[in-house]
Amino acid sequence: MHVVLDNVRSAFNVGSIFRTADAGAVEHIYLCGQLTCWPPHKKLEKTSLGAHAYVPWSRHADTIEALEQLRARKIPIVALETTGRAVSMHEFVWPRPVALVFGHEVVGLGQEVLQACDHQVRIPTFGCKSSLNVATAFGIVLYDVLSRR
Description:
This protein is α/β, with parallel strands linked by helices and 149 residues long. It contains five helices and seven strands, in the order βαβαβαβββαβα. It has a single domain (2-147), classed as Alpha/beta knot (3-Layer(aba) Sandwich). It is globular, with a radius of gyration of 14 Å.
Protein backbone atom coordinates (compact mmCIF):
# COMPACT_ATOMS: atom_id res chain seq x y z
CA MET A 1 0.00 0.00 0.00
CA HIS A 2 1.13 3.50 -0.87
CA VAL A 3 -0.13 6.72 0.72
CA VAL A 4 -0.19 10.13 -0.94
CA LEU A 5 -0.68 13.20 1.25
CA ASP A 6 -1.69 16.25 -0.78
CA ASN A 7 -1.32 19.54 1.09
CA VAL A 8 -2.06 18.11 4.52
CA ARG A 9 -1.52 21.24 6.58
CA SER A 10 -1.04 19.82 10.08
CA ALA A 11 2.39 18.43 10.92
CA PHE A 12 0.74 16.58 13.82
CA ASN A 13 -1.57 14.81 11.35
CA VAL A 14 1.36 13.92 9.10
CA GLY A 15 3.21 12.47 12.10
CA SER A 16 0.15 10.47 13.17
CA ILE A 17 -0.18 9.10 9.65
CA PHE A 18 3.46 7.98 9.75
CA ARG A 19 2.86 6.18 13.05
CA THR A 20 -0.28 4.43 11.79
CA ALA A 21 1.42 3.64 8.46
CA ASP A 22 4.19 1.87 10.35
CA ALA A 23 1.62 -0.20 12.27
CA GLY A 24 -0.05 -1.16 8.98
CA ALA A 25 3.17 -1.92 7.06
CA VAL A 26 2.61 0.80 4.44
CA GLU A 27 5.19 0.54 1.65
CA HIS A 28 5.70 4.25 0.97
CA ILE A 29 4.35 7.71 1.86
CA TYR A 30 4.43 10.47 -0.75
CA LEU A 31 4.52 13.89 0.93
CA CYS A 32 3.12 16.29 -1.67
CA GLY A 33 2.22 19.90 -2.24
CA GLN A 34 3.32 23.14 -0.68
CA LEU A 35 1.72 22.56 2.74
CA THR A 36 2.64 18.98 3.65
CA CYS A 37 5.71 18.96 5.90
CA TRP A 38 8.46 16.34 5.82
CA PRO A 39 11.18 15.13 8.20
CA PRO A 40 12.99 16.55 9.97
CA HIS A 41 10.12 18.48 11.54
CA LYS A 42 9.61 18.84 15.29
CA LYS A 43 5.80 18.49 15.31
CA LEU A 44 5.82 15.58 12.84
CA GLU A 45 8.46 13.78 14.89
CA LYS A 46 6.51 14.33 18.11
CA THR A 47 3.45 12.45 16.86
CA SER A 48 5.24 9.88 14.69
CA LEU A 49 7.23 8.64 17.72
CA GLY A 50 10.07 7.69 15.39
CA ALA A 51 7.97 5.98 12.71
CA HIS A 52 9.24 8.51 10.15
CA ALA A 53 12.57 6.68 10.40
CA TYR A 54 11.00 3.30 9.48
CA VAL A 55 8.39 4.11 6.84
CA PRO A 56 9.89 4.97 3.44
CA TRP A 57 8.84 8.40 2.21
CA SER A 58 9.58 10.90 -0.52
CA ARG A 59 8.89 14.59 -1.00
CA HIS A 60 7.09 15.87 -4.12
CA ALA A 61 6.30 19.52 -4.76
CA ASP A 62 3.75 18.42 -7.37
CA THR A 63 1.12 15.84 -6.38
CA ILE A 64 0.28 15.02 -10.00
CA GLU A 65 3.92 14.09 -10.59
CA ALA A 66 3.77 11.60 -7.69
CA LEU A 67 0.52 10.14 -9.03
CA GLU A 68 2.09 9.75 -12.47
CA GLN A 69 4.95 7.77 -10.90
CA LEU A 70 2.42 5.44 -9.26
CA ARG A 71 0.44 5.11 -12.50
CA ALA A 72 3.65 4.21 -14.38
CA ARG A 73 4.00 1.32 -11.93
CA LYS A 74 0.38 0.32 -12.69
CA ILE A 75 -0.74 0.97 -9.11
CA PRO A 76 -4.45 1.90 -8.90
CA ILE A 77 -4.99 5.30 -7.30
CA VAL A 78 -7.91 5.85 -4.91
CA ALA A 79 -8.92 9.28 -3.58
CA LEU A 80 -10.52 9.42 -0.15
CA GLU A 81 -13.02 12.22 -0.51
CA THR A 82 -16.64 13.12 0.15
CA THR A 83 -17.84 13.76 -3.40
CA GLY A 84 -21.02 12.74 -5.17
CA ARG A 85 -18.96 10.23 -7.18
CA ALA A 86 -17.42 8.58 -4.13
CA VAL A 87 -18.38 4.99 -3.34
CA SER A 88 -18.74 3.86 0.28
CA MET A 89 -15.61 2.09 1.46
CA HIS A 90 -17.86 -0.81 2.52
CA GLU A 91 -18.91 -1.36 -1.10
CA PHE A 92 -15.52 -0.76 -2.69
CA VAL A 93 -13.28 -3.68 -3.68
CA TRP A 94 -9.77 -2.57 -2.72
CA PRO A 95 -7.18 -3.38 -5.40
CA ARG A 96 -3.81 -4.78 -4.46
CA PRO A 97 -1.52 -2.95 -4.61
CA VAL A 98 -3.26 0.38 -4.05
CA ALA A 99 -2.32 4.04 -3.56
CA LEU A 100 -4.56 5.99 -1.19
CA VAL A 101 -4.74 9.78 -1.64
CA PHE A 102 -5.66 12.08 1.25
CA GLY A 103 -6.01 15.86 1.06
CA HIS A 104 -6.15 19.11 2.95
CA GLU A 105 -8.07 18.89 6.22
CA VAL A 106 -10.55 21.65 5.33
CA VAL A 107 -10.79 21.90 1.54
CA GLY A 108 -9.99 18.28 0.62
CA LEU A 109 -8.49 17.33 -2.73
CA GLY A 110 -8.47 19.71 -5.68
CA GLN A 111 -10.20 18.87 -8.97
CA GLU A 112 -6.94 18.17 -10.80
CA VAL A 113 -5.89 15.60 -8.20
CA LEU A 114 -9.37 14.03 -8.10
CA GLN A 115 -9.38 13.68 -11.88
CA ALA A 116 -5.96 12.00 -11.75
CA CYS A 117 -7.33 9.28 -9.46
CA ASP A 118 -8.89 6.05 -10.71
CA HIS A 119 -11.55 5.87 -7.99
CA GLN A 120 -13.14 7.98 -5.27
CA VAL A 121 -14.09 6.39 -1.96
CA ARG A 122 -15.71 7.83 1.15
CA ILE A 123 -16.07 6.78 4.75
CA PRO A 124 -19.77 6.71 5.70
CA THR A 125 -20.57 9.25 8.43
CA PHE A 126 -23.82 9.56 10.34
CA GLY A 127 -23.58 12.81 12.31
CA CYS A 128 -23.84 16.45 11.32
CA LYS A 129 -20.32 16.58 9.87
CA SER A 130 -19.60 14.72 6.66
CA SER A 131 -15.86 14.33 7.20
CA LEU A 132 -13.27 13.15 9.71
CA ASN A 133 -9.82 14.25 10.80
CA VAL A 134 -7.41 13.17 8.05
CA ALA A 135 -5.24 11.04 10.36
CA THR A 136 -8.33 9.34 11.77
CA ALA A 137 -9.70 8.75 8.27
CA PHE A 138 -6.38 7.23 7.24
CA GLY A 139 -6.46 4.79 10.15
CA ILE A 140 -10.03 3.72 9.39
CA VAL A 141 -9.33 3.13 5.70
CA LEU A 142 -5.98 1.44 6.30
CA TYR A 143 -7.54 -1.14 8.59
CA ASP A 144 -10.52 -1.61 6.28
CA VAL A 145 -8.09 -2.46 3.46
CA LEU A 146 -6.01 -4.74 5.69
CA SER A 147 -9.03 -6.54 7.14
CA ARG A 148 -10.15 -7.59 3.67
CA ARG A 149 -6.83 -9.15 2.69
